[in-house]
C-alpha cells in the first residue's frame, strides 16, 4: 500500500486549485497524490466570475467585460460594472497550466484511476490498488448522488455553443448575464451570452429545475434562442454542457480526522447561483495555510455565514415551489436593486439593512414564509429526488 502525506481525490476546480496551492515551496517536503479518472485537457467548461481585483489565476483570464445586460420580456437594462469586471477562464487553459506545474514537481504523483471508495482512516481504494494518506481531500461528486439532495434542491443544467458568425452581431464589451425573454416553461430558464468578439460568442441555454432534458431538447431550445437573436448563419466551433447541484443540503468539509470534503461536496458552490471559482480559491487558501501551520485543515475556513445560507435556502424553496418563474423573481431583483448591489449581495458582503432592501423587492409573502421555514428546517436527503 503506497502512503502519501496528502491525497487529492478528483481533478476538478477544487482538486486542481488545492494542488496548485500545494506547489508552494513550504510544501515541497510533503508527498502529494492526485487521483482522477483522466487528466483533463479539453475546453469542457468556461469558468466565469465577477470581481474588483485580481485572483489566483489572473494570468489565465482570457476575456473581461466591463458591462453586463439583464433582459426579460418587458425589461432590458445594460449596466456599467465598474469597479467590477466580469471575467472568463477557459477550462483547457486552467487544466494545462496546473498539470504542467505539477509535472515539474518531484513531490507530486498523478495517477489516472477511478476512485471507488474513501475510508475515514485515510485509505483510498481505486480499481487498481489502495492508497493511504495522512490527509485526504475528496472532491469526487456525481450529481446523481441522492443522499446529497433535499426536496428544495435544484439542478442548474445547461448546454452552450461557441459559434462564429459571418457578420458582426455581438457587442464584445457586454455579457448577457441573464436573458429571461425566452419561454420559462413554468420554472427558471434563461439565455447567457459571452461575446469574445463581434462575430464569436458562447451562447448558453440554462435551466434551474429538478429534471434534466434529453440532449436533443437542449439543441432545440438553443436553435430557438438563436433564431430569436436573429442569428441564422453561423458555425459551431465548440460545445459544452454542465450540471451543478443547487442545494440547501448541510454540506460539511470535515468527514473525519483524516478526510475532508472540498469543492461542491464541501459546500463551496453558492447554492443560489452555482458560482464557485473564486469561493473555492478563498477557502482553499486558508486550508493550505492551516496545513502550513500544523492546524486541522478545516480550522476557521471562510465558509458561508448562516444568514446567507438561509437566504439561499429561501430562494431555492420559492423556485422549487413553482409559484413564480425565474423571470418574475430575477428581473425584479435587478430592476429594483441594480447590478452592483446584487453582485455585492451574491458575494455575501452586504449589510443587514441592504439585505432587507433586497428582500423587499421580492414577492414578500412567499419569500417571508419560505425564509421562516428555512430557519426552522433541518434539511435531509430526499429519497425520491432523481429517482
Which terms summarize this structure?
7-stranded mixed β-sheet, FAD/NAD(P)-binding domain, disordered C terminus, alpha/beta, 3 domains, D-Amino Acid Oxidase, Chain A, domain 2, 387 residues
Can you walk me through this structure?
The protein starts with a strand and ends in an 11-residue tail after the last helix. The protein folds into 3 domains: 2-62 and 91-148 and 249-292, FAD/NAD(P)-binding domain (3-Layer(bba) Sandwich), CATH 3.50.50; 154-246, 2-Layer Sandwich (D-Amino Acid Oxidase, Chain A, domain 2); 306-376. The longest helix is centred in the last third of the chain and has 21 residues, at 326-346. The chain is built from 8 helices and 17 strands. The strands form 3 sheets. Strands 1, 2, 8, 9, 10, 11 and 17 form a 7-stranded mixed beta sheet that branches. Helix 6 packs antiparallel against helix 7 (352-359). Strand 13 (174-179) and strand 14 form a beta hairpin. The chain is 28% helix and 30% strand. It is of the alpha/beta class and 387 residues long. The chain crosses the membrane at residues 6-23. Keywords: Membrane, Transmembrane, Transmembrane helix.
Question: Would you summarize the structure shown here?
Answer:
By secondary structure, the chain is of the alpha/beta class.
